[in-house]
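Q: Can someone sanity-check these two? First one:
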Amino acid sequence: MKRKLIVFFVKFLLLGTLLFGLFIGSIYLGVFGHVFTKKELKEFKNETASLVLSDRGRLIGKFFADNRTNVDFDHLPKELIHALVATEDARYFEHEGVDSRSLLRVLVKTLVLQQKSAGGGSTITQQLAKNMFGRSNHGFLSMPVNKTKEMILAYRLESMYSKEDILTLYLNTVPFGENVLGIEAAAHRYFNKSVKKLKTEESAVLIGMLKANTYYNPRLYPEHALNRRNVVFEQMKKYGYLTEKRTNELQALPLSLDYANLESEGPANYYLVQIRNEALAILETINKRADTVYDLKKSGLIIETTLDYELQQYALRAFKSHLGKMQQQLNRQYSNGSDKASLDALVNKELKRLKLTEVADVKKRREIFTWNGFSSDSISVRDSVSANLKLLHAGLIAVDPNDGFVKAWVGGIDFRTQPYDQIFAQRQTASAFKPILYASALEEGAMPCQYLDNEAVILKDFEDWQPQNYDRSAGGKYSMAASLSKSMNIPTVNLFFQQDFNVLNDTWKSLGFSQELSDKPSVALGISTASLYEMAIAYSAFANAGKRIKPVFIKEIRTSDGRSLYKHPKAVQLDRVLKESTSGLLTAMLAKAVREGTGRALNSVYGIRSELAGKTGTSQDYGDAWFLAYNNDLVIATRVGASYPVIHFRSGTNGSGSALALPIVGKTLQQVQNNRTLRPKYLSDLKISEQNTFALNCPDFIDDSEIEKFFDNIFKDKNMTFKKATKKAKKQAKREKNKSWFKRVFGKKE
């Protein structure tokens, strides 16, 4: 009997061994799917995210299929390696891919003692194999098949790579939740820094996440993450990487994050859309002539952009500071009375358009954007639509007028909830259009001291339209320079009638505008639509002596090893669209607008000391507010307005270009002025020639009876020198300013 039992046991053992051998052999032979060869392992490359950098190397975004950035072993802090080995594979430097002692322990505890918390027996190398190639589904055999594959691959990896290489590969492939792969991407996501700058306590947090990257996510579950971090410290102490004193010091530290999700909350997400479009076009050209095909999301490219990170941050702060305050005021305005009634009517119309009338009052927990951060509350569809309709939207663009490099690009108030880029929104230009009309006149030979009639007029041929100045004043004549700088409407309409419309239309098109102009006098006051993008291009021609730029976003594209694939050419020939004399005279007139006209708050309120040219704009009923400013090195433009122009402030106190748009530019440049590095770069004084300065030397306003007398007095002596004429003109202008009627006409104007 005993002999039979022994024979049965031996046969059973032999059969089991044979079956196990067949099982292992079938895996080697690929019965359960391909097992990667040493050659294939050697050629393995992670798909790597392409990095987008500012003009001085600051990371502003990524393009990826997998959010991963590979790093070399030299960039991994030793405390990070110690934490990983102590926590995940204490005998890592002793085994050859599979730790038989650890595996046996797990088998005994799991199969014999039925301990579910026995832990895993996988080494770091086995985990690397899993991260590299994933796991397949083989039904009830899934676990043994996948584990066996990982053991085979682990042995192969250990025979090919050094321990350091395997650790590097592992840390570049391991997931950290939130669609983040690899230690470098994780360091940027949770601590806003490169992995090489991680502190010991930060390294421990990330290594602690490897056990369960959601449960130990420090943003979602800080208590779990803190406890797990301290367990990592205990493991490091256990295996001699930390002293007890150092362990106690580290465990006493609070959990500190600097969370930075560039994909949803980055500093330039609207800008990244433009980068993606331009990069794809560039790569399409490169791939046609290159042996290697480069993929924007997988090839780990380095994209150096034109964006100035600091200027971008200053603009974002200006948005939050100013628009946060103005949004509160608009919300109060629409909380009661006739404004609330008009809003409610618009909400009902919008609900009907969106076919949401039946569910309008159904409440649901929704994320709500505010300038103090997002809040989550249970609100109805109706309330949600109402809140969105009241939102003040804005865009800001800053470009170098000499080469078209885009230095700042804020396309809206929040990319995640309001993804439409306001820089491309077509809105009424209002008085921001006037410099184009005046430029057209200057092109045809008009001069800043040419006088324009300011008498009230009713235009019978245009449905009895009666243009009015902002302050309702009328009478006398204004110089072209004063008419533009003080944004006078009646003189501007008269200037329109003095011109050939075809000349104005040609100027409009040559400056880069896409919409058609109507041949009617209201065009002079900005009823035509344009985008901030187009306006920035046009004003750049004013700043750079009359040349049309094309905005540039990308300076260079490199491979991860530093090889240049594309460089924006340094010297680009710009097309001339205005005479140099036109841009010079217009700039002198728009500098007057900032110095003493509608843009004067830039100096008086925001303390900008350098000379700038600029123009405000306020559309009908304050639906949109514009402000554009420039010098020879920077054009900065912004526009503010709700989605529908019918939602607006009641008066110019809050809704004018000088009140609603100018402060964004003012607050941005205020920060530039306080930055010793950026100040000389962006806030140098305008270069205005003596000739163009003299061309503005005439009284702003003059009575009809005094015009002839004024010029007779100045130029009656034909032999008078330029210098003497200038001096006499200044004295005459001073006398005119002292007259009582001057005080009457110079009230607040827009």
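And here is the second, same format, sequence then tokens:
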Amino acid sequence: MAKYDLIAATGCATGIAHTYMAQEALEQEAKKRGLTIKVETHGQAGVDDPLTQEEIDNAKAVIVAADIDVDADRFAGLPVIMVPVAAGIKDPGKLIDQALAKDAPIYKPNTKAKAATGGKSSGEGLGHLVYTSLMNGVSHMLPVVVAGGVLTAISFFWGIYSADPKSGQYNAFAAMLNTIGGYTMNLMVPILCAFIAEAIAKRSGLVVGFAVGMIALNGGTGFLGGIVGGYVAGAVVILLQHLLRPLPDKEFRGLKAIFLYPVLGVFIAGMIMWVITKPMAGINTGMMSFLKGMQNSDPIILGLIVGIMCASDFGGPINKAAYLTGTALLAQGNAFFMAGVSAACIAPPIATGIAVLLNPKAYSKDDRSAGYVNFLLGSTHITEGAIPFAAKNPLLNIPSFMIGSAVASILTYMSKIQVPAPHGGFIILPLVNHPILWVVYILIGSAVSGVLLAIIAGHSAKKHGVSQNSVSLAGLTGDEAVAAIAPQAQTTTTTVGATDTDTTNLGDILSSDNIVMDVNATDRDDALHQLAALAVKNGIASDAEAVYAKYQKREAEGSTGMEQGIAIPHAQDATISRSAMLVVRLQKPVEWKTFDDQPVDTLISFLIPEHDNGDHLHYLSNTAKLLTHQSFIKQLKAAKTPMQILTLFKE
């Protein structure tokens, strides 16, 4: 049985994109650090790669990045970090650091571990429980809504009254589809209610939740009643578990599970729901009437609100609030509201594809690939593909997404477009009343966001002096990174040092004498002067001023500052006798033009003879490849002696 340094569980409300994006992010970050990890995913198809008890027992720590219940009680006794699934996508490194920290919170049965945000109060634990239980209900409800909605919509192919035996449009097959779809859609509220309760109180909560959900459905409370009923059912079962705790489990466990919890739970929670059904139904009816009125009187305001909600967190709780409202109205026969919601959800990922097409030089190779894939994701109503782009510059990019989504939604509402299915994107175009117009509106909104994103990315690239291949070394191949480090080598890197099989060893040009710690430099030019003097002192060059002049010339062509406090100054001159590498650690960081606008405290310098056989390109390429790995950078920064640094480069 394999042993893992870390184990993790990921899951989102839809179980489609976030779940697997978090898995990928955690696995890639662990790989960079040389750690082993196994990630259990909770998707719509079920649990993939389930964790065994032996794997759990042998793990050092656990990361739960999920918006749904993943049965965290099995991790009791281990350090557990619990966060929303989005945190697993955005900052996997931080989660791994916190999970492996000495003060990581130990999970106790029937409690909630502290979130990685540093929350310590019980209120934060309650908030996390409320959120994950709601998302658990939404996760199980969505497939039912989609199935019922699509089948009902297909029945309309035979006519809007095709299910009515008294109508001339009546068709027996269409009536059957409509009936099946209607029954399925009616399961929405009971399932939502039941699985909210299940996340709070396990199987006993599920039973009570279904019963309360049926009361909510028949009482006309809609999905609002399902949400309230779920929390009522869960709370009642938890209260019963507490009150019946004096009864010993050994003798009464079966009686509690089969008789006491379901009977008393349904009775108590059912009475509460019965009492609140009438006012809840009034609230639900009022809200739906208000939204229907806005569709006709204020389509611009409604589209603006829906667009902002759908593009604010890309599949998160705010996005889901708009989506749930659309599905609730759809269940009542209103297909107008869902049209605007779908348009607003489809636009952001398509916008990223447009942005990388408009300004490819401003994006890294990985970003460009992701943008192209997002054309497919967006067309199938998967908004989450926009998250990595939003995370790069959230203060500017997220508003750009909001503007485009709002435009698409407003145009959709103004044209009275109807989308009778709650998911599917362009797959359900045959069901849309004005399919071509709807696609055009979505593309207009996407183009608006795409242009804004391209402009923002271009401005950022220009500000940071980015090469045409990327905005930083992160995610680049060795050849792309060497192009950023040494522009003069771009024409030859395709044949020299272009593969990872290159055997040139950096230890050949680096010795412990060429590594100096705690150098006191006042600014960048002083640091370059001291590098040139070190080259002469170690017999690598004969004229410090000549070497310094070449350093300056190279900086004038384009800064050699990279990111994370590292610069790669290099000089080629006739006074340099042999290829060599210098590594200097500064006592205090100095200002240097870098990709991330941070000062520099580590210099990796290359000295190159005027006439060499191209070996320096191998060394540059190998260094560039090393600097694309966070694990290497962390070890370099943590090294305390020249020998540690020398060993690191040789390895």
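A (reply): Looked at the second one. The CA atoms of residues 258 and 499 lie 65 Å apart. The chain has four domains: 6-119, 127-276, 299-463, 482-650.
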